[in-house]
Amino acid sequence: xxxxxxxxxxxxxxxxxxxxxxxxxxxxxxxxxxxxxxxxxxxxxxxxxxxxxxxxxxxxxxxxxxxxxxxxxxxxxxxxxxxxxxxxxxxxxxxxxxxxxxxxxxxxxxxxxxxxxxxxxxxxxxxxxxxxxxxxxxxxxxxxxxxxxxxxxxxxxxxxxxxxxxxxxxxxxxxx
Length: 176
Hints:
The protein has about 180 residues and is mostly helical. It has one domain (about 10-135). About 60% of the residues lie in helices and about 5% in strands. The protein has helices at about 5, 15-35, 55-75, 80-100, 115-130, 145-150, 150-160, and strands spanning about 50, 55. Helix 2 (about 15-35) packs across helix 4, helix 2 runs antiparallel to helix 5 and helix 4 (about 80-100) packs antiparallel against helix 5 (about 115-130). It starts with a helix and ends in a 16-residue tail after the last helix.
């Protein structure tokens, strides 16, 4: 299945992928820019508080880069935004686990504290959920392009079905 060929350009699922990538991307971009304004060391392990989380120069740079990447995905939209949301979501969850193991240690180069770990898990789950929305479920509607791709015979049959012509039959009214 070629992901870029599955979803029509104007399909309503594209809006979910686009808005979620754009919204989270803007938040990450703002967080990263605010982190740069505090002049914290690039590899500082203690960081400075920004939006109830800690940040340093490296985390600010990564936030800006991932924010711009998600915004670019939102601009492109469609399946690209969906796949990007899922991929970046997985990276955020992995980052949460890695940084959870590094909390309080000398190798905590992103200055993570527990709030950052929880944020990483929450954003990762949000991005994955929005990226998979309408693609991964057992009850996709018949007009969903992913359902049509997974069930080509039924999709072809549904395109050849024709409805009876003329007005619908009257029911419950006396004839006469």
